[in-house]
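Re: beginner question about structure tokens

> Can someone show what the tokenized structure looks like for a real chain? I only ever see the sequence side.

Sure, here's an example I had lying around. Input first:
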Amino acid sequence: MALGKVPGQGGDAELDEEGIFAEINITPLTDIFLVLLIIFMVTSSVIADAGARSGLRVNLPKGATKEVNPGSKDLTVAIGSDGKMMVDGKLVDGTELARLLAEAKGKDSSTQIIVHADEATAHGRVVQVMELAKTAGLSRLAISTRKAR
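And the corresponding structure tokens:
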């Protein structure tokens, strides 16, 4: 806050020279808000990336198996409860998924396909994705689960 004298305030000549005004400088406040905004934007994107690599939030079924850490060459296919499939955050259909699986096979034949299916997904949809992977020549398949308590 800045304090200073404003001439011309009041009727007394002595007060005219000694008037006080207050001014709020919002520049530092704006700087703080912008820094906080940037911090929240960066952390929210990191938190979003920490979830499914496929871009679709699913309610995984419970299971007690070994941990599978997806590598850079692995392909994660998310299947929502409505049966929609996503790969790398993009909605795909069966034809597009078959093309992506064939590309993955072409890059590296040991690519692992991780099926990240919602608990309410129809079993047939999961089998369809697995069959597309086998047709493309990929034999390493994994199904994501959450820890059983």
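Each token stands for a local structural state, so reading them left to right follows the chain. The longest helix spans residues 27-50.
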